[in-house]
Amino acid sequence: MPSQPSVAQLQQPAEVKDALALQQQHYDCTPCRLMGSAVFTGMGIYSYASGMRQLRERNLEIMRSGSRFGLGARKGAIYVLSGSLVGLGVYRLTN
């Protein structure tokens, strides 16, 4: 059985690094990590599927517009966005 701290020990302020270490120990629970990871990964998958579907639907409209940003740039932006979100999901799960 651990001994009780004395009155003198309780009256002294705690070390800052010890208090921060104690807070960090219970800062992030496993269900929070799983939920955050699932949300980021799901957003990445959804943004990829939705973005590619919209590009297929508006392919002719984009080609006729003569915009500086053609299909390649738009697909690249969708790849970067969805890849970043999935990467954040993996990062959230591991860290």
TrEMBL record:
<feature type="domain" description="Distal membrane-arm assembly complex protein 1-like">
    <location>
        <begin position="28"/>
        <end position="65"/>
    </location>
</feature>
<protein>
    <recommendedName>
        <fullName>Distal membrane-arm assembly complex protein 1-like domain-containing protein</fullName>
    </recommendedName>
</protein>
<dbReference type="InterPro" id="IPR028036">
    <property type="entry name" value="DMAC1-like_dom"/>
</dbReference>
<dbReference type="InterPro" id="IPR053092">
    <property type="entry name" value="Mitochondrial_unc_protein"/>
</dbReference>
<dbReference type="Pfam" id="PF15055">
    <property type="entry name" value="DMAC1_Dmo2"/>
</dbReference>
